[in-house]
Amino acid sequence: MALRKNLNCMQKKVFIKTFGCQMNEYDSNRITDSIKQIGFSKTTNYDDVDCYILNTCHIRDKAKEKVFDDIGRLKKNYRNKKKPLVILAGCVAQAENSEIQKREPYIDIVIGPQSYHKLNEKILEQTNKKKKIEETEFDSIEKFNYLSEIKNSDNKISSFLTIQEGCDKFCSFCVVPFTRGPEYSRPIERILDEAEQLVINGVREITLLGQNVNAYNYKKNNKIFKLSDLILSLEKINDLKRIRYTTSHPKDMTDDLIECYSISKKLMPLVHLPVQSGSNKILKLMNRKHTVEDYLKIYKKIKKTNPKTVFASDFIVAYPEETDVDFKDTMDLVNEVGFTNSFSYIFSPRPGTVASNLRQIEKDKAKERLKIIQDKLFHFQNEKNKKYINKTIDVLIENKTKIKNQYFGRAEDITAVFVDCNKNITGEIVKVNVTKANKANLFGNMVF
After folding, report:
1. pTM, full prediction
2. Phi, psi of 373 (to 5 degrees)
3. How is the chain split into domains, by residue range?
4. Quick one: which of 32, 37, 334, 364 has the most CB atoms within 10 Å?
């Protein structure tokens, strides 16, 4: 291949460190597939590499600072060795490219998440001309057209597959519209082709990804394909055993998608549906475009459609202007739904967002509220897990652990399960009798 010849090198090693969301994990895998074309192979040892890539997240401020801490450690590690090519990718690169280049000259290439189709070209350009490079244009169509031509080599039992990128919702606290651009849905036929390739690789569970994954909306020949259409199409792939999706928005939880929880045999009964707050006042300030009542209506519809379904969510506590009454409203919602496998964070202002200009709640109050909600969420998770004891459940086995005869897998509601078995069961859905549980994990034995 011409690109590889232009690099003038033997096989080179690349280390990729990924921060943040599942979409970044998917992007890192696809970056690996792409740069193989110019002679790079992935390594897990960053002490001796030719290229070091940081795939970054911009959701919370600490994530950005971790990037600079990581670069500091890298500089120290390579003080007496040949400096690797250092690439900053992802949402921090997109949002703060000019500041990054000024603050850290050790970085050679800054590339945003919509420009990965240009990465090989930029690596060659930097290698030949030894100049700093920034590439942060929004070009989702070209990116996915390019990646569709490259085989996805991921062969883990559970794999991610991006179907939609960007966001048009413009929540007051969120940087995604500025770092990932407007909503874009990939062609359904290309998603199905990639899914089939993953299954050939050995993948048995696919999690569909998008900033607003249930906003998936692909038009072809006057027909609109939605997430429900995609799920029911994936259902037909024989060796694909489970389907999940994340992250969804209440505004796009339509009846056709809800019906999938009744008619699909492979869609798992876990709905990760971020609500962010249980106060309508705060939801309006967040520009979430839904109310608590809207959310509960969806919850009741899905539970009626499939009573086995459990709900997970995201919560932002101590959002500007959140009073004790507003926080109590959130706790009332938590108690009513009984969320499990959920995430909660203290509000973190992101530069350029509407909420960044609002007055923050004092740290002690914020920490107190976070502890209260996390204690309650862990309580519900622990209670749910305890109900599995002495019951038999289906578990998809993902890998063997370092402990002899122990395997790791996940229940239908995504809870981690550790299974004792003296034969190789990787990739199989097995019956497991649960013998004990804690708030995070289940433990059990195979039922033969």
Report:
1. 0.88
2. -70, -35
3. 2-137, 151-268, 297-385, 392-446
4. 334
